[in-house]
Design brief:
mainly alpha, 59% helix
């Protein structure tokens, strides 16, 4: 069996490969981009191209993860509300 090159199992930054992390990166980038755009204008005036450009992701990548903009909006809002929720004060 041939010897493996040192660091061959690491990515460019020297980190261990993380399939889950790579999968989540486009989701997080697209959600953040959508939320930033919603702060500027209504959802009805935001397009997939706008979100993709803001997230620095190709439109085809958007469609690999979401069927449409309302699906992304629902997921982003659900995640934002779940991360911003805190227990009631005592």
């Amino acid at each position: 069996m041939p010897a493996r090159a040192r660091g061959a199992d690491k990515d460019v930054g020297g980190r261990e490969p993380d399939t889950l992390g790579r999968t989540c990166q486009p989701h997080a980038a697209l959600e953040a981009a959508l939320l930033a755009l919603i702060a500027e204008r209504p959802l009805s005036r935001i397009t997939v191209s706008d979100v993709s450009k803001q997230a620095d992701i190709n439109r085809s990548t958007f469609y690999e993860h979401y069927d449409d903009l309302p699906t992304l909006a629902a997921e982003a809002c659900a995640r934002a509300s779940s991360t911003n929720s805190s227990p009631p004060p005592r």
